[in-house]
Specification:
The complex is a heterodimer. In chain A, strand 8 and strand 9 form a beta hairpin. Chain A starts with 12 loop residues before the first strand and ends with a helix. By secondary structure, chain A is α/β, with parallel strands linked by helices. In chain A, the strands form two sheets. Chain A has a six-stranded mixed β-sheet, with helices on both faces. A three-stranded antiparallel β-sheet of chain A has the order 2-1-4, covered by helices on one side. Chain B is mostly helical. Chain B has two domains: about 210 residues, no CATH class; about 80 residues, Arc Repressor Mutant, subunit A (Orthogonal Bundle), CATH 1.10.10.10. Chain B starts with a helix and ends with a helix. Classes of the chains: A alpha/beta, B mainly alpha. Chains A and B meet through helix 4 of A and helix 7, helix 8 and helix 10 of B.
């Protein structure tokens, strides 16, 4: 890795022959995917397509039945410090007795390691991250008192506090207000400007071409992946959504595919 | 030291150590698992009695800890098969292990020096009679040593791993992703619960341990939105339950352990009703306040709108208010100078009221 003559840097995420199953049911089947550095990639697909599972497998939260995922050329366990994770907002208990600043400070826990306690420096970093998502005024607010969009921004601030090179986000835009949506888009573009890579599970097909550079269409198998202009086509959307779930077949006809075809 | 004080201090130590580990049980929604562990450790205690015949505290804690972790892993094993949910799995495992323990107690009373009453209700009243001796030296009360060490260990555990426990409880996904295995943390906590339970068991018995594990933390959870404060309040409530329980038991001449649990329950009810944060009364008051604000907003915008004035009957008809609501809303608005009653009995906006109505309209 330290050899300077090796010019081709390993990609942020490389997925090979990945198969994941819950009990006997395959959720991901033989997926190959490379995420290029410095890009924003959306993962789209119908419910049950394995989008979240793909993120969780990359993060070592779900075991692979076959295949592997490498993060910057190495197994995830060796690269944790390079990766930040934004779980689905609904996956945690927002009645937990804590405030926004404390949740963001959790983003520094990985760098601290076992036993070391967060101190003044960690709280300052957390405060700065809250500021970046426009939530500085809510630092002391009990988290159950925040709106859904504000909670999502707290989660994003926590990912910023992880100070990573690669960001995995599970549905960051789900159920947020317009202000938060704008804040997230701005944040994603800021990350890209710094050369960071973002992989986000995304549901709103209408906004894929506005918000993202790359897209992966997933429905247990990988249907297509690549720059939005190439991969986000009507045919691919039909393959991803249309064949399997009939009532969703109307979806791709309204907007995204046509805008992608421009 | 008076035997009274010995019993009270023993109870306070039980309350404090149980509350420390109990807070995380409550926050992780695992109260039922705490209940299961507190019952099934009986098998561990009985096993140690049966095979060693002794009353070695260390062996007792280790035996009970092993059975506690066995309970947790059995529950997970059954749960993972898919057709049995976690609550049902808990309901399957702990009665099985507990009843095995009960059978041993009743079948081999000569080898297992426990009677059923002790198992169920503890024997805190006897705390003054057991001394801790080492190499023939009398070092003081046995319960102080055991519970004191346990409380210190619990404090150390929660203090050292506070950040890890907090993260794994709030967001196990992130905890796992950044390398704090939630499984390791989970089993660590369960080991602490098992050890605490078996030490407290001697004093308050299998049934009431769970009250000390769950009730004071639940009370604290109603009183604060800060985790550190929750710990302090839980320990305080646990200790207060012990002191109050002793006093109650003395005055009604009843079971000390039972009275302690009762006082813990009463403190919970008080917090449930009166907590300024999440109490029933505070919630109702907040709700009533919001209703009033809303009703006043309706009144002001109605008067500001197309009518200019309205009498009580119109208002009642328009907003489906009963006589009391209508009277209260108008009286309040008149008192605050927003609305004026005309000679004909109708209400119109004052200058101040017009300003307030515009604020309502602006949201």
């Amino acid at each position: 890795m330290s050899d300077p003559t090796i010019s081709a840097a390993p990609p942020p995420v490389e997925v090979r022959d990945l198969t994941v199953a819950y009990q006997a049911r395959p959720v991901l089947w033989d997926v190959d995917l490379v995420v290029p550095e410095g890009k924003l990639m959306a993962i789209v697909g119908p419910n049950g397509a394995g989008k979240s599972t793909l993120l969780k497998t990359a993060l070592g939260l779900v075991p692979a039945a076959a295949g592997w995922v490498k993060i910057f050329g190495r197994p995830y366990a060796e690269q944790r410090h390079l990766v930040a994770y934004v779980p689905q907002r609904g996956s945690v208990d927002w009645d937990f007795p804590t405030n926004a600043l404390d949740v963001v400070t959790m983003g520094r826990y990985g760098a601290l390691g076992w036993l070391r306690r967060p101190g003044k420096r960690e709280r300052e970093v957390a405060m700065e991250c809250l500021r970046q998502v426009g939530m500085a005024d809510f630092a002391g607010r009990q988290i159950s008192q925040l709106s859904g969009g504000q909670q999502q921004r707290v989660f994003l601030a926590r990912a910023l506090a992880q100070d990573a090179r690669l960001y995995f986000m599970d549905e960051p835009f789900a159920g947020v207000d317009a202000t938060t949506e704008r804040a997230i888009v701005e944040l994603l573009r800021g990350l890209r400007a710094e050369g960071k890579t973002v992989v986000a599970v995304h549901h709103d097909l209408q906004t894929v071409d506005h918000y993202f550079d790359e897209v992966a269409l997933l429905n247990v198998r990988l249907v297509a992946a690549g720059p939005v202009a190439d991969a986000f086509t009507h045919d691919n959307l039909h393959l991803t959504y249309g064949g399997r779930i009939g009532f969703l077949a109307g979806g791709p006809d309204h907007g995204p595919a046509t805008s992608a075809a421009d | 030291m008076s035997s009274e004080l010995v019993v009270i201090i023993t109870g306070v130590l039980v309350g404090a150590s149980c509350a420390l580990v109990g807070c995380f049980l409550v926050l992780r929604r695992m109260a039922l698992l705490g209940d299961a562990i507190s019952h099934s450790v009986l098998l561990g205690i009985v096993g140690v009695f049966f095979f060693t015949g002794g009353r070695s505290a260390l062996l007792m804690v280790l035996g009970a800890g092993a059975v506690g972790l066995l309970t947790v892993s059995l529950v997970e094993l059954i749960n993972r098969t898919g057709r049995v949910r976690e609550d049902a799995a808990i309901g399957l495992v702990f009665p099985a292990l507990f009843s095995l323990g009960v059978i041993f107690v009743s079948r081999f009373p000569s080898r297992v020096h426990l009677d059923v009453e002790h198992v169920l209700y503890g024997e805190i009243a006897y705390a003054p009679f057991y001394r801790f001796e080492l190499f023939g030296l009398d070092l003081g009360y046995r319960s102080f040593w055991m519970l004191g060490i346990m409380a210190a260990l619990d404090l150390l555990f929660v203090g050292l791993f506070y950040k890890e426990l907090k993260l794994a409880t709030f967001d196990p996904g992130l905890a796992a992703a950044i390398g704090f295995s939630p499984v390791v943390i989970h089993y660590g906590l369960m080991a602490a619960v098992s050890a605490t339970t078996v030490v407290a068991f001697d004093s308050v018995g299998a049934i009431l341990v769970v009250a000390m594990l769950i009730v004071p933390p639940s009370t604290a959870y109603l009183l604060t939105d800060r985790l550190t404060t929750m710990f302090a309040l839980a320990v305080g409530t646990g200790a207060a339950s012990a002191v109050g329980g002793y006093w109650l038991a003395r005055s009604i001449d009843g079971s000390i352990a039972g009275a302690m649990a009762t006082v813990a329950g009463l403190l919970f009810v008080a917090a449930f009703l009166l907590s300024p944060l999440h109490g029933l009364v505070a919630r109702l008051l907040r709700l009533r306040h919001l209703r009033r604000v809303f009703a006043r907003g309706l009144l002001l915008s109605h008067l500001e709108g197309h009518h200019g004035s309205a009498d009580l009957a119109t208002l009642r008809c328009r907003f489906l208010w009963n006589a009391r609501t209508a009277a209260a809303v108008t009286r309040g608005a008149v008192r605050d100078g927003l609305v004026r009653e005309t000679t004909s009995g109708a209400y119109t906006l004052t200058e101040q009221g017009r300003g307030a109505a515009r604020d309502v309209a602006a949201g």
